[in-house]
Amino acid sequence: MPDVRLASPQGKWILLTTVLGSSMALLDSTVVNVALPRIGRDLDADMAALQWTVNAYMVTLAGLILLGGALGDRFGRRKVFVVGVVWFAVASLLCGIAPNAEVLIAARALQGVGGALLTPGSLALIQASFHPDDRGRAVGLWSGFGGIGAAVGPFVGGWLVDGPGWRWVFLLNVPLAALCVPVALRHVPESGDGRAHGRFDVLGAVLGAVALALVTYGLIEAGQDGAVAAVSALAGVAAAVAFVAVERRRAEPMMPLDIFASRQFTAVNLVTLCVYAALGGFFFLAALQLQVVVGYSALAAGTALLPTTVLMLLLSARSGELADRIGPRLPLTVGPLLCAAGMLLMLRVGPGASYPGDVLPALLVLGLGMVTLVAPLTATVLGSVDVARAGLASGINNAAARAAGLVAVAALPLLAGMGEEAYREPAAFDAAFDRAMVWCAGALVAGALVAAAVVRRPPPGCKRPECLRHAGVTSPPLEGEPVRKRLA
């Protein structure tokens, strides 16, 4: 049984290590959007390249995050976590010195692999190291400090972009890794799952990532070469079908399909797809809208988006407590509708928009909607399956959210009619942004309808979230015990 106490020096070192590691991945997911206009200008990149700068990272992260958790169970959670941190830092260095958009996109894909190794490992190390009496508080501190990192991330990113330059958004990860790795090797105990054995479901992981990549490519390229885009999208669908077939045949697959026999679990993941597609698309385009159309600097744009994160950090725990009392159906219905209202309020944000009169009200309504829905969504995911599968259920839900975000970033510019040079033409971008917000609001309303129709209160005694203060805006928190399924 793990016996490290939180108050001990070792406990504090373990907490520092996990916060540093998870913050690297969290910061990149929030900061890069702010840097996109400057990246585009410096590398002479078109809109598709900016989409790939975001999505190359998300494709590998979403496709491999379940495999990353299983690798830690098999080979040692500290070992895989450290490998992930080093991998992420090296890829970040490549991003920071990229001479062109093609190298940057390739390096971002490598970053996603590192993120898939370290993201599940950070929480798994806490769960495997701390005494059960201290584990809940340790997870709470981990999520709270992570929320603070998410809150300051856009501000720091904007300052770096306007000051030393956008490359330092990536280069900053190198010293963080240099601090994290030796602390982990010296102070964090190794742990693993003795029951994990057999062969890994590498084929399933590869097929999942390939399916996401091909569909994403098809959506991004649809406006330029329809024939190539159609072939790519069809190949992506074929890869997705093959993924399902492989997972069905495996004795113990990466993603056991029988988990979707739970109507509640399936419904909550549908809500997740709708909600995080809208949020992923919004945060990608909003940072561009504020800079390209409204005229904000990168620092001002990053700071402007802080209210949503601050509200999440301050109120998520209370929202979760309320949902425990009244059930998840109402929060998962009202929350997406509030988010949809916030996005429709963004239609007022155009040339000459006032921050207190136009931008802030939209972000406050959006933030309140996110506060209302995120904690109940996580609790309902955990409560819709057996306790033994809570870690697996959380991993699937987290991967679904990230996949929804990357598809939205690929599809929204196409649906909204953004051309290759859209971010260089304020009037054209403004009109397309308005159309995109309507699409995002529609996705949120669809999620609310699914929640109202299907979601019900989980049974008594189901597993509850440990990450009570969550400030991430692009995916729900990973929760539950480490993934213990051996990927045979």
Automatic annotation (TrEMBL):
Residues 14-459 form the Major facilitator superfamily (MFS) profile domain. It comes from the Bacteria. It is a multi-pass membrane protein. The chain crosses the membrane at residues 12-36, 48-68, 80-99, 105-126, 138-160, 166-188, 200-220, 226-246, 267-288, 294-317, 329-347, 359-387, 399-416, 436-455. InterPro entries: EmrB-like (IPR004638), MFS (IPR011701), MFS_dom (IPR020846), MFS_trans_sf (IPR036259). CDD domains: MFS_MMR_MDR_like. Keywords: Antibiotic resistance, Cell membrane, Membrane, Transmembrane, Transmembrane helix, Transport. Its main location: membrane. It is found in: Cell membrane. This is MFS transporter. It comes from Streptomyces levis.
